Amino acid sequence: MLKGLGNVIAIELKLAVRDPMAAFFALAFPVVILWVKMRNGGTLPGGLPVIDAVVPMLSVFVVGLASLVVLPATLAQYRERHVLKRLRATPASSTMIFGAQWAAHMLLAVLGTASPLNSTSRAPKPPHASIMISSR
Fold it and tell me: Looking at the whole model, is its pTM more than 0.85?
């Protein structure tokens, strides 16, 4: 059962990455938005760097997009193309397909969330960070 689920998750992940909308909005869009926001630089009114507000916002955006937009759209496409009806003739249950869809889209969301975090680790540190550390 678990081997079959792993195979179905791998196939669903391949299909999700091949979908241009899902791949772009899960993997590339957060990095593009982060780049646009960081070009302006600056700090927020409380002195908080912009990046400290943008990265959590992008994380929530990617997870919400994967779970509330892309996953239902993919399942609707499956229904429209009669994929779910054809799956009745296979040993795979609909629960397995829906679980694999969920796992594949959540993995895309994790990768999409990790991409801006990885970008911020290479970003230059603000000058006030060293002052805060040395004042302790």
Answer: no
